[in-house]
Design a protein that fits this description.
Blueprint (H helix, E strand, L loop, with lengths): L2 E9 L10 E10 L2 E10 L8 H7 L3 H5 L4 H12 L4 E3 L2 H14 L9 E3 H8 L7 H8 L11 H15 L16 E6 L2 E6 L10 H12 L8 H9 L1
Parallel strand pairs: 1-4, 4-5
Antiparallel strand pairs: 1-2, 2-3, 6-7
Helix pairs in contact: 5-7, 6-7
Length: about 240
Amino acid sequence: MKREIVLDTETTGLNPAAGDRIVEIGCVELVNHIPTGRHFHAYLNPEREMADDAFSVHGLSDEFLRSQPRFADKAAEFLAFIEDAPLIAHNAGFDITFLNAELERARLPSLRNDVIDTVMLARDLNPGARVSLDALCKYYGVDNSKRTLHGALLDSQILAEVYLELIGGRQVALTLVTESHTMVPDTVDGIVVARLREVPLAPRITAAEIAAHLALVASLGADALWGEYLDEALAA
């Protein structure tokens, strides 16, 4: 079983070294590249005032955030959710730097998870093209019509769909393709992230394993979310 966590954060500004803090964390779980419906979400009291520029991005006010828990109060729950799974984020260095700064304040170890940066993936796949989340949604036909303001959980859900497209589309989720992109480690600003491997590794899935997976998804019932992916795969 391959478990991954797509995450996003909202902050009071751009520089944790200058005292900017996280005000929202959103995470969604993927298992074998399929959204499971499990998520982690928290608004956080940054214990400082919100910058006007940041408020214009996410709309989270000082008044609202004062009643929310501090990062230290939610850290154990957050860490228990992500465990040691690879973390997928858009411009991942920003989010990981902020999360590690918050963990340091809470006197907890820094993250050691593998990190996949979807900005880097998009640039590798489409050199010279715009790689903002909105631009990628338009390119891949991902619905982002509810994204009037940035929100960590909504952006994570949207990014999960974009990520699946970046690594080969929804068929990757059912391992029905004979070739897929493979990630290799790289380091950017001191953070280990992943790039696309130029020559993908040979697939390791067998026909029997594909059939067993399809049978499992079909057994979940007509109302199961995964049935949507199964229907698309069988129609392909």
